[in-house]
Amino acid sequence: MYPPLNDYEIVKLPERYSDSQSVTFENELIICGGYNNNKCYSYHTIKKEYKYICSYPGDISFDGHFVTKFMTNSQTSGNELNLLSFGGIGRNTTKCTFLMKYKSVWDYPESKTDENFNMWVKCNDNQNIGKFNENLKGSRGLIGGKDNNLLFITHPPHNIKIVDLKTMTTIQDSKIAQKDYSFSFHFFTYLTINNIKVQDQFILICDEGILFIEYNEKTNKFFYESIGECHNLNIPFSSFVSFYDCIFLFGGRNVTDQGKGSCVYKWSMKNHSWKKCKFKIPLDLYSSSAILNDRATQIHIIGAESDYDKNLHCIIDLSVIHKTIELAEIAELYECIGLQDEQMRMSHGTPFPPHMKRRRIQYTTETSPEKCEYKKEELKKLETKLKKFDDKMKIYEMNWDDIWSIDGKFSKMEKKISRQMQDISLNIDTSIQRRQFLKILFAYISQSALEDTSQSLNEISERKKIVKSEIDTVCSQKIKLKAEIDTLLVTYINCIVQHNKLCSTKRDIIYEENKLNEKLKTLNESIQSELVLLNRFDDLSGNLNLLLEQNKNWMKDEWNKLERRFIEWKPLDIAIFIGHNLRFTKSEMNECKENAEKKKIGGSQLLNKEIQEWMDMFNFMKISAITVRNSFHKILITYSTEHIPKNFLCPISNAIMNDPVKALDGRTYDRQSITNNYRMLPNCSSVLNDGKLELFANFTLKEKIQSFLNGAK
């Protein structure tokens, strides 16, 4: 039983692993050996079971090797995985590099027997990573480069090299110039910003501190910078995981008392600072390894220990590592990034993201997004929207009931927009009617001016200015209302796009649900069929077990009958007795029967036979003769009184006497038995005279015994 844990899951490993190496592949965690352990297993994260894959060659022993995934030009299927294994071997030793093409042992069971997959293939000497005099114990590696073809390797004492995976040749081999940096069994990972890897920029953590490394592929040069300390965390015995711009350290060895640790520390790539987490893992983590699953939802720690077991696999949910408020900050960060991407698309004249173009909604000509001109004013408004991210209500910030209910916030906002659009439409109609009225009025005034020549030109000019002012006011209002309509229209379009996207997601979910239900139905039918078959097998097993018991009881009865009539044994009975005790084959039993017939051996001839006589009669080895003679002796002790007169039996050995002699106590014994065992008699002084054993031959009884034996032949 394992101790109860919250938000953890404990699985027993099939082997004990220390300093193991693991990679992830879809729903699998592939464990690729460890310290003095060459076996490789696949752990299925859904089925929660292990399957054996293969082993490294038996003559290889690792101490801190490294395994990584990489792509090759020959890889044609997404169901395959290429693995590269190197390191784990010290200086002045020939290095070994291995490659494996992996196919899931869960989806493709036949891949176990396919010699092209799921086995480590040793590279040629000219392709091996590492020189004879280099120390690759506790080395680490990362894939980088513009074409993802460069393998960056850090290894003791303070070296970094680059291997071109296309040619398996070393293109850079240098020492890290930073002072006092020495590392082995360290942590080497990518620098990330907003959880996105920065090309050819890395973080190295060792006992001496934290180092930033940058590589320039054009100039083939490195840049180093020390960016932190480790405060005696004992890095070589710890395990690490990197995600969301943070590095988490698990366990290790307590520097103060050298005990195994269970603490968790977090180092921020943004703030360059360590922070001790409030929770602890109630297991000993020492020389274990940690890895994040492909979906970034769980952390797997291989090689944990408890008071109950020394080879455990600990699975931790990510929500335990990150507090709820931190997860919310991460979600908001990515939402802001999405808004920046939208701004970038607008600045390039693309109002819809690429993945939405195929599902673009068909609008009428009047409301088509293509008719909306995204000018500089719209771009400035969007920038303002980004700065005031939390000021305005967004549909994706509303609760689901506010979005889909008839009285929710979204419905109210839609009604408000509708009312505003109606007001705007009324204002536009008013301005148009006023403009038509003014035109009629202007025509009337002009006609009146022609008819009434006495009207003052100054009065006409004054009225003309008043009308012009009114027209300018109405036009200004019209422009303002038009701008508001455009803004509301864009918001409305975005809401429709979001609605269509959600509907599409819903359809996909329903499709997946139906597909899963079909699978479940098929599985259920298979389970029922298997259950019927299991019941039939259970009935058959019960019948066979009953038959087996009957056969055993029959054989037991027959054997008891055989033992009881030992004095009447014929060669066939003797062959059965010897063959059963020595577990003979059929041919050996027949040979024993023929031997007994040839020498005319019966049950009475076996009485009082010594080991050497058994060996001579049946050509036995000594150990076989001892086994048969002891077994026959037990039969004599058990059933001798049924066939042999009691006075023919030695009181000590309970066997027929071979050389009967009388002792001073008046009783008759077998000479050999009394000579060897007289001291074991309850009153041994009764057979001694002056401390010496006195024996007298009993010829009369000896003749009777001999006559009895001759008559039984």
From TrEMBL:
**Domain U-box intervals:** 647-708
Q: Which domain of life is it from?
A: Eukaryota
For this UniProt record, the keywords arranged alphabetically read as follows: Coiled coil
Biological-process GO terms, alphabetical: protein ubiquitination
Q: Which GO terms describe its molecular function?
A: ubiquitin protein ligase activity
State the coiled-coil residue ranges.
372-399
> Does the UniProt entry include the keyword Coiled coil?
yes
- Name the PANTHER family for this protein: E3 UBIQUITIN-PROTEIN LIGASE PUB23 (PTHR22849:SF132), WDSAM1 PROTEIN (PTHR22849)
**The name this protein goes by in its record:** U-box domain-containing protein
